[in-house]
Amino acid sequence: MISVRTLCKAHGARAVLTNVSAEVTKGETIAIVGPSGGGKSTLLRCLNALDTFDTGEVVIAGVTLRPRSGGAGETLRALRTRVGMVFQQFHLFPHLTVQANITLAPRVVRNVAPAVAARRAHELLDRVGLADRWDAYPHELSGGQQQRVAIARALAQDPEVLLFDEPTSALDPEMRGEVMAVIRDLAAGGMTMLVVTHEMHLATEIATRVWVIDRGGIAEDGPPAQVVEAPKSQVAKDYFGRLRK
Q1: How confident is the model over 79-134, as pLDDT tens digits?
Q2: Rounded to whole angstroms, how far apart are CA atoms 115 and 221?
């Protein structure tokens, strides 16, 4: 489903990702954790062609990305229909209703008929518990509701892979619970997901594997019982030790 091979990226003289290699199989949920500035979000952005990379190769949902390609043309179109991304700050269009936010990409990118896109949007809003907010605008929703709409929007493209970049960090505890419940439901349904997160709950109870990323590389990779409860690397020991305090 996802293959990352010796991925490297630098900003000027500063290495951001260094020889990152990893494999993800269909249906896995990967929690990506680690100290700030280690390269977690940059990795996600490279996987979704929001950032280019310098060397290496990414194969994700059958789409191949190579250095500095930028995901141009047909490659980018294929990627956008197969890989969805949910951001920390929601990025909903403020002038569009919930319905319009969710149906826009299917209509424009995949030429889905408006009636078909609307029916799918209703199904997704029901799935994330917001069937009654169909005509609301983003400013009329709580943060947790906006993030659930953002997830529904990503799902409207029927992606094979979902990438989440700190989906709960901008939310208060109650709203975090709302979003975590949706992610748990997606995991139970077999969606392949990579989630950059600081949520211990996600890493220990939802993820099938945990990646600890530090200084541009994967310092530790394994099941939660090993990585979280009995880490081998010093960076993982220090990181989870701080979270438990």
Answers
A1: 988 999 999 888 899 999 999 999 999 998 888 999 999 999 999 999 999 999 99
A2: 44
Token digits for 128? Answer: 């994330």
Helix axes 98-109, 73-82, angle to 10 degrees: 140
User: For 194-211, what is the HEC assignment?
Assistant: EEECCCHHHHHHHCCEEE
Nearest to 102 by CA among 78, 76, 131: 131
Its pTM stands at: 0.93
Give me the pLDDT at residue 245, please: 63
The rounded distance, in Å, linking the Cα atoms of 177 and 99 is: 23
Q: Are 82 and 58 in contact (CB under 8 A)?
A: no
Classified as helix, coil or strand, 24 is strand
Q: What is the dihedral of CA 69, 75, 80, 86, to 10 degrees?
A: -30
* Beta strand ranges found along the chain (DSSP E): 2-11, 14-24, 29-33, 55-60, 63-65, 83-86, 161-165, 192-196, 209-214, 217-222
